[in-house]
Amino acid sequence: MKRRKLIPHKADTQMTQRSYLKSFLRYIAGECLLSQNSCSAYRRDLIHFYIWLGRKQIIDLNIQDLADYVNWLHVRKLAPSSISRHVVSLRVFFRYLQLENILRQNYAELLGTQKLWDRIPSVLTSGQVTRLLVEPTPGRDSYWIRDRAILEMCYATGCRASEIINLKLEDIHLDERYCRCRGKGDKERIVPIGEQAIAAFENWLNVGRQALLTTVQKQQGHNAHRVCPEMVPWSDDFPSLKDLETNWAFISRRGQKLRREALWELVKKYALRIGASPAISPHSLRHSFATHLLEGGADLRLVQEMLGHASIVTTQIYTHVDMTRLKAVHHKYHPRN
């Protein structure tokens, strides 16, 4: 009997290229032990690269192609800092492909990054901060107690948005007036908390949080009669009792962990109400925290420690903010101006 000739199937190159990204993300999470936020950032940047890549093959790219990719990022009107971050992400990705013998040469290493100007961060004045912290209003805002506690905690600690939402009840020590937060690289640090932030959090903990959880539990019981019990644990609309017994410091209206995006929306909502810039974000409260401390005479090294900066160079940008204010005062009041 004559043998049938076997015809090899051509590999799906697009599928193979997508597998590069998946294996890279597993590598940086499992072997490099990067945080979830860092892995997500690499993923977002490299998805842009794959959109530009289209049907082109990674192994066929040269330096001119990669330069075209950087130009494509310019056309999409990304900020210089964002473009620099995309280039760095591409370099790390190509290093991995070279390590896996997929690429012989890493042309991404030849890409230059733009010289970035030190940007002065957006900062709220003391008056704006005071108005912002009391803007959540009973009768107007359903979760005003929680929102006030969140805003107070952001400004009192200078924590990043991801650090605020990841705070747990056991991290906040009201009697000792400090909280323990986990920053980049899962590094822990201790940050003091002021009296007003403590009062706002106690009100949330003893009044607002309990009321919210009670409401969610009642709603869960009401919906349980209308939905098949077997389906409840798999529905996002009906959190289980285990979910409601959460120890997250700040929770959503469904009794679950507050999303990072929800925190950004919350801050922007109240910032717009007081007439602040639309660019204000949770990070602006972090900037304001550092700037106001330095204006009050705090030591730069202590501010670095409270912010969780690995390098003092990162913290020094706030001295430029203070210098800008001093120049304005000099220009206004000096008799020779």
What tags apply to this protein structure?
DNA polymerase, domain 1; hpI Integrase, Chain A; 2 domains; three-stranded antiparallel sheet; 55% helix; globular
Note down, in words, how this protein is organized.
A 3-stranded antiparallel β-sheet has the order 1-2-3. It has 2 domains: 13-110, DNA polymerase, domain 1, CATH 1.10.150; 126-330, Intergrase catalytic core (hpI Integrase, Chain A, Orthogonal Bundle). The relative contact order is 0.09. By secondary structure, it is mainly α. Residues 6-12 and 227-244 have low confidence and may be disordered. Helix 2 packs across helix 4 and helix 6 (144-157) packs across helix 8 (195-224). It has 14 helices and 3 strands.
Tell me the total number of β-strands. Answer: 3
What general form does the structure show? Answer: globular
Q: Please write the CATH class name of the largest domain.
A: Mainly Alpha
Q: What is the level-2 CATH architecture name of the largest domain?
A: Orthogonal Bundle
CATH topology of the largest domain: hpI Integrase, Chain A
Secondary structure: elements and pairs:
Blueprint: H1 13-30, H2 36-53, H3 63-75, H4 80-99, H5 126-133, H6 144-157, H7 161-165, E1 172-173, E2 178-182, E3 188-192, H8 195-224, H9 241-244, H10 260-273, H11 282-295, H12 300-307, H13 312-315, H14 317-333
Antiparallel strand pairs: 1-2, 2-3
